[in-house]
Amino acid sequence: MKVTKAQAQANRERVVETASALFRERGYDGVGVADLMAAAGFTHGGFYKHFRSKADLMAESAACGIAQTAALSDGADEAAFVRHYLSRQHRDARATGCTMAALGGDAARQPEAVRATFAAGIESLLAALGCGAGEEGADGVDQAARRAGCLDMLAHVVGALVMSRACPDDSPLADEILVVCRDKVLASLDAAAGDSSAEDGTH
User: Fold this and answer.
1) Which residue segments constitute the domains of the chain, with CATH numbers given?
2) pLDDT of 10-55, one tens digit each?
3) Fewer CB within 10 A of the terminal residue: the chain, N end or C end?
4) pTM of the predicted model as reported, rounded to 2 decimal places
C-alpha cells in the first residue's frame, strides 16, 4: 500500500523524535541506525527514504530536542529555569532532558552541520530567556550585558548538569553539585537584579 505524503511526514517525525530521545540517553555512538529504526517501529531499509546519512538525522534530532527545551524555557524567568534545570528530576531524565547537556561533548566531535545545529540551539535558548541577539533592551537594561549574563548562567547550569550526571546516580556528590551550583547561580541572579534596581533608583 502506497504511503501518503502526510503519513511519510508523520513517519519521519516519529523517527526524529525517537532518535532525539535515544541519542540523549545513549550518545551518538551508542545508537545504530538499525536499532534506532526498530525503536521507532520501522525497518532499517526505510531510513534512507527519509535521511541521507546518520549525521543528517543527528542534526535534525538535536534541533528537535533543543526546541523542546526552548519551549519549556520560553517566558520563564531565569530563576525558575535554573531551579528546574538543576533539579534531580531533570538530571535523571536523560532521554527527555536538555540536549545541550546530554550531547554537547559528543557534538564537538561531529560534522559541522551538527555543530551548527547546536550553535543555533544555544541562540534559541537565549532567545527563549529574552537574551537573543539583536533584541531590544527593556526598561533601560543594557541588552549586551544581559546577554552576557545569560550566556554565563547557561554555561554554568549546563556544566553543572554534565558534572552531576558523570557521577554515579547514588553518589552524594551528584546531588551536591546540583545544590551548590543551583544556589550559587540563583545568588548571582539575585545580586544582578539588585544591582540593576540600584542603577534604576528602585528598591
Assistant:
1) 5-198 (1.10.357.10)
2) 999 999 999 999 999 999 999 999 999 999 999 888 898 889 999 9
3) N
4) 0.85
